[in-house]
Amino acid sequence: MRGYTFYQRASRAFQDYPSLSKLVVVFTVSSGGLVAFSDAKPFRGAYADAVQCDRKKKKVVSPRNYFAFTPLLPSVTIGTVEARSVVEPIRNIVRKYHGLHHCRVSMFPRLQSASEKDFDVQFREAECLRIDAKNKKVYCQSNQESNLGGKEEFTVDYDYLVIAMGARSNTFNTPGVVENCHFLKEVEDAQRIRRTVIDCFERASLPSVSEEEKKKILHFVVVGGGPTGVEFAAELHDFVVEDLAKLYPAVKDHVKITLLEAGDHILNMFDKRITAFAEEKFQRDGISVKTGSMVIKVTDKEISTKERKTGETLSVPYGMVVWSTGIGTRPVIMEFMKQIGQGNAQKESTELNIEGFKSALSEVDSQMKNLPATAQVAAQQGAYLANCFNRMDECEKHPEGPMRIRGSGHHRFRPFRYKHLGQFAPLGGEQAAAQLPGDWVSIGHSTQWLWYSVYASKLVSWRTRMLVISDWGKRFIFGRDSSRI
Ligand SMILES: Cc1cc2nc3c(=O)[nH]c(=O)nc-3n(C[C@H](O)[C@H](O)[C@H](O)COP(=O)(O)OP(=O)(O)OC[C@H]3O[C@@H](n4cnc5c(N)ncnc54)[C@H](O)[C@@H]3O)c2cc1C
């Protein structure tokens, strides 16, 4: 009986505080999922931060009712990790957060004289279509069909708005990309890729398929030699070599993986040693890396490239293309930036008057804030913002930011400072590369274990952490699951 009680208590502790070592706050406001990881902060410490906060109302609007841990999406594409293991329902996070009865961060702090139990975080599964900055309104459309047919539209008023919609995949308007390529941005993308890879192997195994056709079907093209493209190519190679080659012995020799990169090298944001190691490793593994190769068109059968050195145009048939060439701003954000006068900052900065000079300065400032589009940056920005909201009253009275260029006095808050903790590039075959602060580079099997521990620790809850670790364990013991579900 005593044992059972202990079990109940332990289970409750995990359910109520999914992250005992970490406070996770998701504020996906009228838009995307900005996740504030209050990293490695003891729970009590986080509570202490929170108590000064007023009871404020937060509204979270996002078209997906879950938070996805994107760094593990390449592993989802081939079943190293299951999709459900890398997502945490927003309502789960909100419920636990709500249950704590203390407010740390407010998105829409319409101050209320309500009692403590009225404190609320509301979540709406909807997409933000437009922001009206002048009237402080966000126009949203629900994902769900309404009883009257069509999708319900509603507006959300705000006092403070945090936009965290993330970015969209950039196609550079290349013809045929949207229609024929896979992207790797969302969980659904990763699931679609997983099914398509298996489909290609099953299709190539049909008796009526010619040798030529098999080669085409099993030609996997990855466009973009950045961290996502490289990691996906490496994961796909592992899947083929470690699992599919045993299951589809008749077609295994027809498999080809090509990585196309318009620049001179893959992983060009990493140290040269890592780039060189990755290129050599891919060559040894038989992954064809074509640098200086710019994709100009994709049809349903062929992908066409322009070779920088020779200027010639080449077309190759393919079975599946994954497009991973970087990200662009979402249209709704571009429209919002125009509204608040940030859409044409470059134009303003050329004017030779004092306003022009000021705007040039602000442009320099914004360029300095041009940080890499990584989860590491987003998480730190989330934590910074949470801290600003929590200390708003205090900083109103005692501003701690730099002197204002326009107007007098100081800014309320210190500016955001990004602390770079390093970056990883998994390269397949249980090897990874890491570039750590201080120009420290580590490559090999031990780095892969470092990657496992860092990513496991960064997962947002104990539930997802345990699921992911068990998926890794299952994969080591049984291999990856090739069922097409
Ligand atoms: C495959 C992959 C691997 C990655 N690996 C790493 C890595 O290893 N390390 C790293 O640091 N970074 C990595 N990143 C980058 C990282 O995912 C992003 O930098 C980070 O997720 C950005 O966080 P965010 O909250 O700004 O946006 P996101 O995480 O993109 O969240 C945006 C949210 O906004 C929602 N949304 C979109 N449009 C609307 C709308 N109109 N209205 C309302 N909501 C909307 C979306 O559904 C989503 O929930 C990876 C990204 C990908 C795609």
Automatic annotation (TrEMBL):
Enzyme Commission numbers on file: 1.6.5.9
Enzyme type, top EC level: oxidoreductase
Alphabetical keyword list: FAD, Flavoprotein, Membrane, Mitochondrion, Mitochondrion inner membrane, NAD, Oxidoreductase, Peroxisome, Transit peptide
Domain of life of the source: Eukaryota
Cofactor: FAD
InterPro entries xrefs: FAD/NAD-bd_sf, FAD/NAD-binding_dom, NDH-2, NDH2-like_C
All copies of domain FAD/NAD(P)-binding, residue ranges: 60-334
Keyword set includes NAD: yes
Record field: catalytic activity: a ubiquinone + NADH + H(+) = a ubiquinol + NAD(+); a quinone + NADH + H(+) = a quinol + NAD(+)
Family per similarity comment: Belongs to the NADH dehydrogenase family.
Protein name (database record): NADH:ubiquinone reductase (non-electrogenic)
Organism field: Nyssa sinensis
Lineage: Eukaryota, Viridiplantae, Streptophyta, Embryophyta, Tracheophyta
